[in-house]
Amino acid sequence: MKVTIYTDGAARGNPDGPGGYGTVLEYIDSKGEVHKREYSQGYKKTTNNRMELMAAIVGLEALIRPCQVDLYSDSQYLVKAFNDHWIDSWQKKNWMRNKKDPVKNVDLWKRLLKAMEPHQVTYIWVKGHAGHPGNERCDELATSAADGDDLFTDPGVE
């Protein structure tokens, strides 16, 4: 099955705002019907990179069966970690960038790797607010989820 995941880390730089991450999954079921699942959670006083990691993790963890996944993110950091093989280098160096610079959020990177295992994931960078249709979808879908106060816990995607 093919699934598209739109993510948004919406910390917005405001420690008193809703913040949080938003994830929207779109897929077509075996009957040809289109579905959308939305997940969000508010967090305060954290970074957008951490939010994007959480958004990607939650989207992938929602998938019950192995899927082909296109994951759209405006986090160049997240996308480059996989497309430019940064993460391979970090693992080989025991989660260090160099001798004195440890990788941040190692627990989340490990959780993301585990969530990816059964799937074929393509990471697509949607350069922030540059008129890219994928970015517009991220803004339209995942940002509205991220800016909400509700946690959506729909069952996983079969």
What secondary-structure arrangement, pairings included, does this model have?
Layout: E1 2-9, E2 21-28, E3 34-41, H1 48-61, E4 68-73, H2 76-83, H3 86-92, E5 96-98, E6 101-102, H4 106-116, E7 120-125, H5 133-146
Helix pairs in contact: 1-4
Write structural notes for this entry.
This protein is an alpha/beta fold. Helix content is 34%, strand content 26%. The chain has helices spanning 48-61, 76-83, 86-92, 106-116, 133-146; strands at 2-9, 21-28, 34-41, 68-73, 96-98, 101-102, 120-125. A hairpin with a 2-residue loop joins strand 5 and strand 6 (101-102). Helix 1 (48-61) packs parallel to helix 4 (106-116). The chain is globular, with a radius of gyration of 15 Å. The relative contact order is 0.26.
The fraction of residues assigned to DSSP E strands is 25-35%
Using only CA atoms, what is the Rg?
15 Å
How many strands appear in the DSSP assignment?
7
Name the helix and strand elements from N-terminus to C-terminus, one letter apiece. EEEHEHHEEHEH
- Helix percentage range: 25-40%
Features of the shown structure:
7 strands, five-stranded mixed β-sheet, alpha/beta, 158 residues, two-stranded antiparallel ribbon, 5 helices, 26% strand
Can I get a quick summary?
The protein is α/β, with parallel strands linked by helices and 158 residues long. The chain has helices spanning 48-61, 76-83, 86-92, 106-116, 133-146, and strands at 2-9, 21-28, 34-41, 68-73, 96-98, 101-102, 120-125. 34% of the residues lie in helices and 26% in strands.
